[in-house]
Every structure is written in C-alpha cells, then in structure tokens.
Amino acid sequence: MGKDKIFYWSATLIIALFEGVMPALTSQTELAKEGIRHLGYPEYFGNALVVFKVLGVLVLVIPQIPKRVKEWAYAGFAFDFIFASISHAVVDGINFQTFFPLIILVILMVSYFYYHKLNPSKN
Fold first, then answer.
1. pLDDT digit string, tens, across residues 18-28
2. Measured over all CA atoms, what is the biggest interatomic distance in the chain, rounded to whole angstroms?
3. What distance lies between CA 50 and its chain's CA centroid?
4. Other C-beta atoms within 10 Å of 71: how many?
5. Integer CA distances (angstroms), 95 to 90, 108, 110, in order
6. CA distance 42 to 44
7. How confident is the model at residue 122 (pLDDT cuts 50, 70, 90)?
8. What is the chain's mean pLDDT, rounded?
C-alpha cells in the first residue's frame, strides 16, 4: 500500500505545482497575459482559468473533499489539458507546446488511477 500512496501523492503534487502554485504566482505577469492573448483568448479568461485551477488543486489535495467533487476536478483538468493542446496546435502548429499539456495529462491520469486504487468504490 505504501508504494501506491507514493505514486498517488507524487503525481498529485506535480499537478498541484503545475496547475495551482505556478499559475497563482505567475498569472499576472506580462508573459502569462501575452500567452493568453497569443492563443486568442481574452484576458478575463486567463484570470478565470487560474481561479478554477487553484480551486481544482485544493479539491485534489484535501483528503476530506467528497469523491464526487474530486471526479469533477479530475475531469476539469483533463478538459483543460486537452483543450490547451488543441489551442497550441491550432495557433502555433505542432511543436513541444502542443504535447506538453498531454504529458501533464498522463501525470493526471496516474494520480486518478492511484486515487481510485487507494479509495475503492463502495458500490
């Protein structure tokens, strides 16, 4: 059981750093604002995205949050990564930025898999 917890928390903390801490600390920098503009999104979209990312990370890392709410957070992050990849592909063509969100999606999937392994459904 210890190995499973290590995999779960390692993957979950990587998601928390990339999707909660980094956006919260850097979202108001000119580089971040330009990144949102470059992809064709209005500035308020970037602000809303940061709020939901931070809330989603809190949902994932707080153990007392109900399982159903965690499922929504996992789904939200999956959509975020998929659409980030699509946005980069459409605007910039196929490059590393197109695939980076998919790499993070794989890490999210590891977190999701081990979350369910550690918390089996009682249905």
1. 999 999 899 88
2. 48
3. 10
4. 14
5. 11, 21, 24
6. 6
7. low
8. 94
Structure tokens at 43: 């500035």
Task: Output the six-digit token pair for 52.
Answer: 């939901």
Tell me: pLDDT of 121 over 80: no
3-state secondary structure the chain: CHHHHHHHHHHHHHHHHHHHHHHHHHCCCHHHHHHHHHCCCCHHHHHHHHHHHHHHHHHHHCCCCCHHHHHHHHHHHHHHHHHHHHHHHHHHCCCHHHHHHHHHHHHHHHHHHHHHHHCCCCC
Q: How many residues does the chain have?
A: 123
pLDDT the model gives residue 109:
98
pLDDT above 60 for 123 = no
CA pair distance 106, 87, nearest whole angstrom: 18
Is the whole model's pTM more than 0.85, yes or no?
A: yes
